[in-house]
Every structure is written in C-alpha cells, then in structure tokens.
Amino acid sequence: MNIVVVGAGALGVYFGARLEEAGEKVTFLVRENRASQIEKHGLKVNSTKGNYTFEDPNVVKKVEEIDEVDLVFLSVKGYHLEGTFHSLKELRKKGAYILPVLNGIEHIPILQNELGKDFVLGGLSFIMATLNEKGHVEHNSDFHQLVFGSLEATQTSICHQLKEIASKANIQVEASDDILRELWKKYMFINAFSGITTATNLPIGPIRSKQETFRIAEMMLQEMKLIANAHNVNVSEEDVEDAKSKLMSLPDKATSSMHQDRRKGYVLELDHLHGGAIRLAKAMGVEVPYMESIYGIIKPFENNQPNFTKKGVS
Ligand SMILES: NC(=O)C1=CN([C@@H]2O[C@H](COP(=O)(O)OP(=O)(O)OC[C@H]3O[C@@H](n4cnc5c(N)ncnc54)[C@H](OP(=O)(O)O)[C@@H]3O)[C@@H](O)[C@H]2O)C=CC1
Ligand SMILES: CC(C)(CO)C(=O)C(=O)O
C-alpha cells in the first residue's frame, strides 16, 4: 500500500516506521523545518518494542511530488489541522482515503466537510511517544496500539486492506466495527487525564492520593459521557467505570502528552480537546462546569509557556 504520513511527528514517524518495516511504501509529507531536521539527523525510532532506522526515508515537501497514494495517515496536532487541507484535498484527488489519528472528535466532521464523508476513516492510538532534540521518536510505553474502522459503509474494503497490512506490522491493531464509540471513549479518557494532569502540573499518582482532586477527573468523565450521549453515541456508565479503573491503575508517574507539552513549553492542544468538548456540549445544551473550569485553568499555558519556564515559575 502507498501510505503518505501528513504529520511526521511522534505518532506519524512511529507508525510510519512500523508500516515501512512491514514492507509498505511510506512517504512523509513535511514542512520546511522538519525537512531540514530530517536531512541533518535522519529518521529513527528508539523503542522498547524495537528500534528502527529509515535507511533512505521518502520525504517530500510538496504534495505535487506524490504520484500514488492509497492512504493518508494524518497525525498533526489539532491546532494544525486547517493547514493540512490543501495537501489532503490534492491527495484525495489522487485516490487517497484519510485516516486521522488525532485525539478528540471535532476534526472528524471538519474533515468530512472538507473532503467528503466517504473518504474519512475513524482512527485513534494508544501510545506514549515523543520526539527528541534530533527529531527521532522516543517510545517507552509497552503499548503501541492503532485502532481504526469505517465511518461509512463505502469504507469496508479499505479498512479490510488496512487490517491485512497492519496485522503484519510490529504494532497492536484493532479493527473496530464501532469506531465512533471508540473515538468518544478515548476522548472521554484523554480529556479527564490530560485535563487534571495539565491543570495541576502533576502526574496521576499525587492526583489520586487526594480524593478531592481525583473527583474532578471523575466529574469530567461524567460530563464527557453526557456530551457523547447527547450526540447519540452510546458511551455507558460501564465505560466511565472502565476509564476510571484505567486512571486508577496507571503507574504513579504516568502523565498525559498535554502535561508533558506544558512542561516542555510547547503549544497545547487545549482548544481542540477541552475547547472542542465545551463547543460540542453547548451545541446540545449540556452543562459542563468541570470541563469549563479545567479549560480556564489551563488557558494561560496554552501558547506561551516558555517565558514562565525560563523564569522557573512553573
Ligand atoms: N504523542 C503521543 O504519545 C500521542 C499523541 N496522540 C495524538 O496524536 C496527534 C499527533 O500527536 P504527536 O505525534 O504527538 O504530535 P507531534 O507534534 O509530535 O507531531 C505533529 C507533526 O505534524 C507536523 N505538521 C503540522 N502541520 C503540518 C502540515 N500542514 N503538513 C505537514 N506536517 C505538519 C508537525 O511538523 P512541523 O515540525 O512542521 O510543525 C509535527 O512534526 C495529536 O492529536 C495527539 O493528541 C494520541 C496518542 C498518543
Ligand atoms: C493517554 C495517552 C498517552 C494514550 O495514548 C494519550 O493519548 C495522550 O496522553 O495524549
């Protein structure tokens, strides 16, 4: 399969590596800075599941340089989504289906609107990966799961093909027959987990040790369930309990990628994740006071944390 990765960051390079390792043709469509970094340091994955070095990575800066594409692996951050529309439309014209693996939900209707409902699959990932100073992937978690599925009946064949190739790769793969529900379940979990860890600037251990603090995460799970249900997605009380058990069973030091981004002084996906949940709630008249409070607390760190960290405040 010809796979084009749009978003050659932690997720895109990790899964791109695993798919190339399994024999697929993987091309990275990148912007100028990332292209220079790759030219200087090459492209590599350092992983507990096995390292991988791209011997001769297929890197292009212009979408026009791509002739054949079956699938786009879309792994940009939510705040960069709009910047991909031109490339995605061109790749779509060449016959591509789009597999977005961003956290969140709002990007799905946005992409469907831009590209047509038939061509946008549902996807998500459970992994903890980041880029180091050379732009190489550091993957230390013992999970590296890719979950995907069709959002339209017309996508059965491409999902079948993807399952075939992904099953041969060194990743955990799940082809879901209810990917929308899976997306919402992950969204519920990530908004509670990233919300509470980023707002408190703490990993999960100390949060769990204070009942009053952990309760805020539990209330966010409840609010996410209400929003999903208002949008006719069957996220259940059992799913909330599962998410809570997951939060309870994580190692004390575990934290979210948004919290790590706050610590590193990077731009946060706050508007896409918590902002998106608030908009989805408002559209259906659902009250989400815990989500709004967490959003408000994190807001000052959304764009310009480096000044804080340099002064040693955070
Ligand atoms: N990292 C993780 O462990 C997990 C992340 N996720 C989710 O996956 C998504 C991606 O996260 P992650 O991989 O960490 O993000 P990264 O920031 O590591 O990677 C995103 C990449 O997208 C590139 N990019 C942005 N705009 C464009 C564009 N127009 N064309 C081409 N490339 C572009 C950026 O490149 P540039 O250098 O040009 O800015 C960057 O390299 C997020 O929604 C995140 O929440 C989900 C599960 C776990
Ligand atoms: C919780 C986790 C690590 C699961 O993949 C995640 O998605 C994130 O922190 O962004």
Please explain how this structure is put together.
It holds the Pfam family ApbA_C. The protein is α/β, with parallel strands linked by helices and 314 residues long. The chain has 2 domains: 2-176, Rossmann fold (3-Layer(aba) Sandwich); 181-310, Orthogonal Bundle (N-(1-d-carboxylethyl)-l-norvaline Dehydrogenase, domain 2), CATH 1.10.1040. It is 48% helix and 17% strand. It has 13 helices and 10 strands. The protein has helices spanning 10-21, 32-41, 85-93, 107-115, 156-167, 179-200, 204-208, 211-230, 237-249, 257-264, 270-283, 289-298, 305-310, and strands at residues 2-6, 25-29, 44-47, 52-53, 58-60, 71-74, 97-100, 122-131, 137-149, 172-175. Strand 6, helix 3 (85-93) and strand 7 form a beta-alpha-beta unit. The radius of gyration is 19 Å and the shape is globular. NADPH dihydro-nicotinamide-adenine-dinucleotide phosphate binds at residues 6-12, 29-31, 33-34, 75-78, 80, 83-84, 101-103, 125, 127-131, 257, 269.
